[in-house]
């Protein structure tokens, strides 16, 4: 049995020690934020934080994770209040969202190591693939998150995820009266 900490919870996996960390997280722990993209570690969709490092979880076995502390996107900030998450929302970085958890985890690990990364450092470190092409907004959002994390900028509360449905839509009278179908379906 393999033991390590996942999102501040001690976990013992009764899986083959050669099981990729990604599948233990997704299948055994139901933490589906880390995505399966390529299975070779190239795309980064499966990135999680292991002891402060961004790790492609499809390439790490649970035996290699023994005794570590693993943080997934679900454990980064339950309320989506991490500066990276707020900046991504404020700067409209997200499109389809498939790759975003891996990018967020890579960026969060970067900011933990380097609170003021240069554009060059960001581009060299965040090598995750995004088929939607969010790259132009990505660097700006990470730099904004770094400023927020250092206390130099406040990301507006309106940038937080979620819209109250009552503020987003309401029922109104029909613009066109219903058509009489004479009782036919």
Automatic annotation (TrEMBL):
Residues 1-76 form the 2Fe-2S ferredoxin-type domain. SUPFAM superfamilies: 2Fe-2S ferredoxin-like (SSF54292), CO dehydrogenase ISP C-domain like (SSF47741). One of its GO terms (molecular function) is oxidoreductase activity. InterPro entries: 2Fe-2S-bd (IPR002888), 2Fe-2S-bd_dom_sf (IPR036884), 2Fe-2S_ferredoxin-like_sf (IPR036010), 2Fe-2S_ferredoxin-type (IPR001041), 2Fe2S_fd_BS (IPR006058), Beta-grasp_dom_sf (IPR012675), Diverse_Oxidoreductases (IPR051452). It comes from the Bacteria. The keyword Cell wall biogenesis/degradation does not apply. It holds the Pfam family Fer2_2. Keywords: 2Fe-2S, Iron, Iron-sulfur, Metal-binding, Oxidoreductase. This is Isoquinoline 1-oxidoreductase, alpha subunit. The lineage of its organism: Bacteria, Pseudomonadati, Pseudomonadota, Alphaproteobacteria, Sphingomonadales.
């Amino acid at each position: 049995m393999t033991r390590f900490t996942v999102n501040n919870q001690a976990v013992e996996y009764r899986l083959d020690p050669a099981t990729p960390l990604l599948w233990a997280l997704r299948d055994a722990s139901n933490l589906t934020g880390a995505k399966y993209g390529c299975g070779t570690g190239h795309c980064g969709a499966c990135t999680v934080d292991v002891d402060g490092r961004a790790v492609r979880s499809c390439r790490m076995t649970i035996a290699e994770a023994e005794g570590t502390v693993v943080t997934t996107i679900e454990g980064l900030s339950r309320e989506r209040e991490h500066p990276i998450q707020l900046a991504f929302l404020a700067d409209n970085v997200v499109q389809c969202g498939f790759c975003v958890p891996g990018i967020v985890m890579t960026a969060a690990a970067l900011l933990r190591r380097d609170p003021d990364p240069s554009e060059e450092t960001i581009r060299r470190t965040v090598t995750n693939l995004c088929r939607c092409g969010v790259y132009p907004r990505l660097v700006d959002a990470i730099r904004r998150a770094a400023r927020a994390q250092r206390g130099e900028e406040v990301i507006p509360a309106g940038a937080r995820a979620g819209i109250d449905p009552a503020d987003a839509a309401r029922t109104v009278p029909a613009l066109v009266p219903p058509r009489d179908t004479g009782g036919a379906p």
